[in-house]
Amino acid sequence: MNYRQLEIPGVWLIEPKRFGDARGYFMESFKLDEFQANVGPVRFVQDNESFSSRGVLRGLHFQKGEFSQAKLVRVSRGTVLDVVVDLRGGSPTFGRHVAVELSAENALQLYMPRGMAHGFVVLSDVAQFQYKVDNGYAPHSEATLRFDDPALGIDWRLPAGELKLSDKDLRGMSLKEITPF
């Protein structure tokens, strides 16, 4: 696998090696010893999956305090624009984001450490999104950063009229309202 740290320290783009022939392909999507040698120690405790249609925007979600989660995300069907926002107090990149297109075709994965808000929008007809987390879900600790906060300046690459959000995501907080981790 190829590991490349992005503009936000601790956020990594990971490109697995695919071995293909006329039958299809094979790839290792996660290898603990290799991951830890490149990124650092991790103990994933849960795998999650979502299935969504075009225009569905999930996020920008995060869990606070001791319930914060590091995530390793990938797409096994379709294409999404994946976005990570740094919410770590004292970080020189606080409030900045990175956006990466993840798809079944490019097989790219994105790792984000604890202290990040995370979201994605589906660019294809449908998308199957998979992620590993290093901490369980804690509903009382969950929060949402507003996806369209002008302070973030995120280009979701779809017209606003095509976006489909949950009520929770439409009520997200602005960056100014966030207490850094």
Model description:
With about 180 residues, the chain is mainly beta. The chain has one domain: Jelly Rolls (Sandwich). About 5% of the residues lie in helices and about 40% in strands. It is built from two helices and 13 strands, in the order E-E-E-E-H-E-E-E-E-E-E-E-E-E-H. The chain has a six-stranded antiparallel β-sheet with strand order 1-2-10-7-12-5, with no helix packed on it. The mean pLDDT is about 95.
Which overall shape is indicated by the principal axes computed on the Cα atoms? globular
Major beta sheet summary = 6 strands, antiparallel
Query: Mind telling me the CATH superfamily name?
Result: Jelly Rolls
- Rounded mean pLDDT is 96
Which stretches of 5+ consecutive residues score pLDDT under 50?
A: none
CATH structural architecture: Sandwich
Overall strand count: 13
> How many DSSP H or I helices?
2
Summarize the helix and strand pattern as letters.
Answer: EEEEHEEEEEEEEEH
State the domain count: 1
Provide a brief overview of the structure.
The chain is mainly beta and 181 residues long.
What is the fold's blueprint, element by element?
Elements: E1 2-5, E2 12-15, E3 18-21, E4 24-27, H1 32-38, E5 46-53, E6 57-63, E7 71-77, E8 79-86, E9 97-103, E10 109-112, E11 116-122, E12 126-133, E13 142-144, H2 167-170
Antiparallel strand pairs: 1-2, 2-10, 3-4, 5-12, 6-11, 6-13, 7-10, 7-12, 8-9, 8-11
Keywords:
181 residues, mainly beta, Jelly Rolls, five-stranded antiparallel beta sheet, 13 strands, 41% strand
